[in-house]
From TrEMBL:
Catalytic activity: Cleavage of a beta-linked Asp residue from the N-terminus of a polypeptide; L-asparagine + H2O = L-aspartate + NH4(+)
GO biological process per UniProt: L-asparagine catabolic process via L-aspartate; proteolysis
Gene3D superfamilies: (Glycosyl)asparaginase
Coiled-coil region: none
GO CC term (a single one): cytoplasm
Alphabetical list of InterPro entries matching this protein: ASRGL1_meta (IPR033844), Ntn_hydrolases_N (IPR029055), Peptidase_T2 (IPR000246)
Keyword hit for Protease: yes
Binding locations of substrate: R216, V217, G218, D219, T239, G240, H241, G242
Site positions (Cleavage): D187, T188
Ligase is among the record's keywords: no
Species lineage: Eukaryota, Metazoa, Chordata, Craniata, Vertebrata
EC number from the UniProt entry: 3.4.19.5, 3.5.1.1
Protein name: Isoaspartyl peptidase/L-asparaginase
Keywords (A to Z) from UniProt: Autocatalytic cleavage, Hydrolase, Protease
Length: 330
């Protein structure tokens, strides 16, 4: 059964417009986070949520907020994105990211990039400076060079922790087939936000799954799977077993329930449960609606997440299996 946190705010709350406030929610990946990484994960998502929130407070857009929050997570070696990403079967970093603007449905993504410290910002440049939605591998790098995005030697994105984990696991062949409730997996990052104007945005960034085949691209940079944002329904960022998320187009599935009048918490639970039943996939999602209703939901053992809602930071350093909160504000 999916666990969920939700402020319990009713979508049709008549007072909501008069007290419209900005909300940012971030996740640091849904998986069986080991105890030794738990504190760093919770601290990291809290710091990233505060980063996104301060952008909103300064009058920045939801798009600016999700980019800032995800950049903070990419720069934090505790997470599987940017610096600290997992390694593929050849021991290389291959990074994927997406960003989407709910005002216009504009979206940008990059996949399989190796020497970019903040793929989310390159994804934003794809969205804003090209006529395309996704650039991959060499093409993404050529584009980065053409617009002056600084590249870094791929080795600088490697951490000692990840090198050791990769050495430990490289002989296993299960890779992308495991169910994400083991400590095999790692921690993709994402953010969703709504700004004071009611515009929503999402961003997701990842190194993918440890020991993945060279060139494997998961759900994270794929529009409708790893993320989606539409001012008419809400914004979603997903994490978990990428092949399962792709099969059920999880982000769009969640928003299709929202469009039919379900709360963001129920929509997330129903969709994650569907993914578990239909393709035996585990994962998690964060969702925010244009009216500021939000939820953080997961079917894995743990998911690090944090939210800033009406200037209140919400997160939960709780024992295994109880990382969801039910925060009822009604
Ligand atoms: N969804 C990511 C992928 O499959 C992994 C994750 O969320 O941890 O690439």
């Amino acid at each position: 059964m999916a666990e969920s946190s939700s402020p319990g705010m009713k979508r049709e709350d008549p007072d909501r417009n008069s007290k419209m406030s900005a909300v940012v929610v971030v996740h640091g990946g849904a998986w069986a986070i080991p105890d030794q990484l738990a504190e760093a994960s919770v601290d990291g998502v809290k710091a990233a949520a505060c980063e996104g929130s301060s952008v909103l407070k300064r009058g920045g857009s939801a798009l600016d907020a999700v980019e800032a929050a995800v950049r903070a997570l990419e720069d934090n070696p505790a997470f599987n994105a940017g610096h600290g990403a997992t390694l593929n079967a050849d021991g290389e970093v291959e990074l994927d990211a997406i960003i989407m603007d709910g005002r216009t449905l504009a979206s940008g993504a990059v996949s399989s990039v190796k020497n970019i410290a903040n793929p989310v910002s390159l994804a934003r440049a794809v969205m804003e400076k090209t006529a395309h939605v996704m650039l991959t591998s060499r093409g993404a790098n050529l584009f980065a060079e053409s617009i002056g995005v600084v590249t870094v030697p791929p080795d600088t994105l490697l951490t000692e922790y990840e090198k050791k984990e990769w050495e430990k696991h490289k002989t296993y062949v299960t890779g992308v087939d495991e169910d994400f409730n083991t400590q095999w997996a790692h921690d993709t990052v994402g953010a969703v936000a709504v700004d004071r104007a009611g515009n929503v945005a999402c961003a997701t960034s990842t190194g993918g799954i440890r020991n993945k085949m060279v060139g494997r691209v998961g759900d994270s940079p794929v529009i409708g799977a790893g993320g989606y944002a539409d001012n008419l329904s809400g914004a979603v960022s997903c994490t978990g077993h990428g092949e399962s998320i792709l099969k059920v187009t999880l982000a769009r599935l969640i928003l299709s329930h929202v469009e039919r009048g379900k709360s963001v918490a129920d929509s997330s639970q129903l969709s994650l449960q569907y993914m578990a039943d239909r393709v035996r996939g585990a994962g998690g999602s964060i969702v925010v609606s244009p009216s500021g209703q939000w939820a953080a939901t997961f079917t894995t053992d743990r998911m690090a997440w944090a939210a800033v809602d009406q200037d209140v930071l919400c997160s939960l350093p709780a024992p295994r299996g109880q990382w969801a909160i039910r925060r009822l504000l009604t």
